[in-house]
Amino acid sequence: MTLAMVLIIAAVLGLIFLVRITFLGTQQRSGLGQQFEPIDLEAFRNLVDPAETAYLRYRLPASEFRTVQRARLRAMASYVHAAGQNAAALVRVGQSALAGNNPQTAGVARELVDNALLLRRNATFALFKIYVALAWPNAGLAADRILHGYERLNGSAMLLGRLQSPASPGSISASS
Description:
This protein has 6 helices and no strands.
């Protein structure tokens, strides 16, 4: 009975979370001048590393591990949220490049839009998993798909930036 109640509450909270992200994400879309939030990929990589989690689990007492893991999960959620927001902004940048008449950038822009949409969707699901893991910090969690997707998206954005403006290539990460 208790497990059923916990699952029902988790499902309702998950639904509220997904609806909130979906509707707020569409309302916050303003112009192309939106700033990107840089992401420290090394710190993010450390947070999603299963070996680091295993090391902490081995070295710390159980109660201390749960406290540390919750802090790590909150930091991970912050990085995933920023990656999702950056991906949403890059969708707009890519769509703007597709609307232009330059056929050289069209292929790169299409790849950027596709990668950004995939990362945005994966970030939404990863955030849901992270928030569930906050309740059960001993459970395993793999957010490395977000990290790898973000690195690929960063490369696509830099390539599109070089094609559109060769004098000023940009990056959406703090360590690239």
